[in-house]
Write a structure and sequence with these properties.
Blueprint: E1 8-12, H1 16-28, H2 30-33, E2 36-40, H3 43-52, E3 57-61, H4 69-78, E4 87-91, H5 97-105, E5 108-113, H6 118-146, H7 150-167, H8 174-201, H9 208-239, E6 248-251, H10 252-265, E7 273-278, E8 282-285, H11 287-303, E9 310-318, E10 321-328, H12 362-372, E11 376-381, E12 388-395, E13 418-421, H13 425-437, E14 442-445, H14 448-458, E15 462-466, H15 474-483, E16 491-496, H16 501-510, E17 514-517, H17 522-530, H18 537-540
Parallel strand pairs: 1-2, 1-3, 3-4, 4-5, 7-9, 13-14, 13-15, 15-16, 16-17
Antiparallel strand pairs: 6-8, 9-10, 10-12, 11-12
Protein name: histidine kinase
Pfam families: HATPase_c (PF02518), HisKA (PF00512), Response_reg (PF00072)
Enzyme class: transferase
Amino acid sequence: MPNTDKPKILVVNDDAASLLALTSLLEQWAEESNYDVLSARSGQDALRQVLRHDFAVILLDVNMPGMDGFETAEAIHQRPRSADIPIIFVTAFLADEIDRLKAYQRGAADFLFTPVIPQVLRAKVQVFVALATKNEQLKRQAEKLSQRTTELTATNKRLVREMEERRAAERKSSAKDEFLAMLGHELRNPLSAISSASSLLGMPGAGAESIGRARLIIQRQTQHLSRIVDDLLDLSRAMSGKILLSKKRIDIGPLVSSCLDTFRATGRTAGYQLSSRMNAGWVDGDPTRLEQVATNLIDNALKYTPSGGDIEIAVDTLGEEVVLTVRDSGVGIAPELLPQVFDVFVQGSISIDRSQGGLGIGLSLVRRLVELHGGSVSATSAGSGGGSTFEIRLPRTEPAVVQETPGGAVTVSARPTVLLVEDNDDGREMMATMLASYGYPVLQARDGLEGVKLASAELPAVALVDIGLPGIDGYEVARRLRQHPGTADIRLIALTGYGLAEDQRRVLDAGFDLHLVKPVDLATLLARLAEPAEPAPKAASPANA
């Protein structure tokens, strides 16, 4: 990104003399204050300029023929990208209170009255130029931070672009400055541990025990980095309304129980006094997102409860509501923090326990997802050291005629054959080795064409397909397999580094059954592979090809 980009100021005035006077004044200070000045002779011309450029501030004449200043300001602020551009109205008469109210309702930041006093004009403009320059500096800092690890580069750049487009004006606030500093802290900690462990692996005198510990550290810290990125992306999508729920009638009792089994399988619950009560609780919800809610609450209880503490998890039906309760005997929540515990970034300034790490957005994501389901979430605590109780309430629905078991509690049987289509040799070898260690017969293909050929010859039950493949990409692999009658019923799982809603839609449109974001958690992958295959409409018809 070029460093020569300067903040831009737009002057809008239908009177040629007034326009020349204002632009000439501003250009006197442009080199010293490091900004560019552009002009427009009408409201329509101003809208065209806003489509082409980002502006630090707009000086807008009130009285213009055709589209006046108020209408122009309203049109500028209707576009999401330009909604936060500050506008200073320029008027030749002293505006009364009604005119001022009308201007502020249309997004006015300030007024200037003609004849303009140069010192006043310069002071007002420099404030907004300084804010735009600060935002640009913050953007560059975020980009440098994203380069800390190649595994996070693409995701962090994507996140920065989303945040720039939606929330550029918010970066000037101190809360966002604190969050960026905390993000750097949270990324550097695991990266430092990974770097040290990697160096230990290369030392000639390192013993087997030390090497084993180093590998565990790398695995644990990589998972931590992945959780940070996933939380950031999920929260940004939830706040911008980009999460699309795939609802169906579901009993959340088995779903929560399955989440708990995953924590047990990974050893997270070792050393805790854990009790659960899973009654039937039928809701109309998205199983994946409800799993995310339950997982975040259980993870929160484990994180803030010392080893040996008590954790209780319950699902009950009370009247017209299904209630999920997670209670722990951990560090508790201070009274001043309790009302804000679900707010975004609240832990950036007042943390339950900063030594535990994390960005403090998991509970905010829980609230957003629960609200998308028409439910509510609450937290209670006796204070520091008194433990915490989190309660989720969702609207109850009638049980399904054919009850399903969400989350995948399955019977142990012969493992299905898995085809792994991945062009990265190291990643493919490690994934194949892990699956084989859990009893899955694994076939391997290094590109899309080889994957299609191997699938047609061997007819595996499941195919794990990377999207970014040489030759033909993962989307085309899925389309070809769905078109052929012999391979149309293979269960297709996409592996990709992109996790936005539009990426998921594209994967499903291509014919995949499931979309998993890299790096894929092994416990999650094993749970998905163990789920019984469901007949998909796209498998019966090649319409998606």
